[in-house]
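It is worth pausing here to work through a concrete case rather than discussing structure prediction in the abstract. The textbook approach is simple: state the sequence, then state the predicted structure, then interpret. We follow exactly that order.
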Amino acid sequence: MCFAFAHSYFLHSSFYISSSLLFYLSGKLNCSMEIRRITNPIDPAVTAFVNMQNSVYFDPDALIPAGAIRMMLSIPMTGRKNFLIVAEEDGKLLGGVIFHYLKKPNVGFSSFMGTSLEARGKGVGRKLHEARFAALDEAAGRKVEGVFLDSVAPERLTQEELEAERRVGSDPVVRKDVFQHLGFRKVAIRYEQPVGGPDGGPVTNMDLLFCPHENNVDSIPTDLVVETMQAYWMPWLGPIAAKHHAKILKTWVKGEKMLRLEALV
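Step two, the predicted structure:
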């Protein structure tokens, strides 16, 4: 999930979610809870978000660091728009989500969504999920096809990794259940992150998930998955490597044009 950018960045002023998004979210928030989109890379919420994700996720090396988040919020990218949306209460961060609109496949890809331990059970994740879809639709100027994310598969974690999960108060099985309640399903495809694993090799303990915007969707085109992953990988692998790994991904489905969306639990 980590990105490596080598560009200078400039500052934007932070603003709250646009009026159309506020209208979408009206009536859904507790009166003391605020959903805010962060656009200023030096907004204190960036640091608060990074501290939160580091405290609740068992593998900090898999997370996007503060410097990369600030660059993503600052640098316009062709065919891609990056977002950080947070939930706050009385100035305290309850949770947040960092995600990306990918123009060509017209989808979102979510890099991380989490809530603080004390905020769990308050519906913060649901509100962030709704805000994510609203922001993606606004960026697209129409409905997006849906949102992808990747998540560790509990059955493929080592005992050490499971222990690390427990130390930070998380449970990969519970996480899958939460994703399913939000509408995510597992894409029936072998999935690997090309780099970031042992000795710099692939990460093989993750599943690719998808939440369709429309109900009653039980499969998605293989080409949508391949195009999405190529676009998602491009900033940190480069265009040649991203295209190469996307082609490998396509070979694993052995000619299947559509991929099933499977229940997580």
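Step three, interpretation. The radius of gyration is 18 Å. The chain has two domains: 8-139, 145-265.
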